[in-house]
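Good morning C.,

I know you're traveling, so I'll keep this short. The sequence:
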Amino acid sequence: MADTLKPRPQYRNIHVSQIVAYRLPPAGIVSILHRVSGVLMFLLLPFVVWLFDVSVSSEVSYERFRAAFVVGVGFLPGWFLKLVVLGLIWAYLHHLIAGLRHLWMDATHAVTKEFGHQSAIGTLVLSVLITLVLAYRLFF
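The tokens, ready to paste straight into the viewer:
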């Protein structure tokens, strides 16, 4: 019986040093960025809670909140806080759009190579464009 079994193909993982040279398709990039954006939002959750708390507690705390983005907080300059918030904005937008993309594919069973490629490019473009629009509003 052992003679009738086909040999399994040998797969091997790439080494960490090969990641930069490895060309992922757009769907792979979106998948990795979906995970990265989720981790980023999770790690910065205390910052988001602080932002929310300071912005809605009182008028005085709201003014302190607004001043933080101009003058900064402690040793962190205001532009750096804006950059962190911009990173959070991108993470939220990318995670939302990529999640909607996955829900659409699950609900409609639209899992073709072409749809995966086009929707991945659309996800990347849409999340970056909306982030740039909000960056303009945040910095200017």
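Safe travels,
E.
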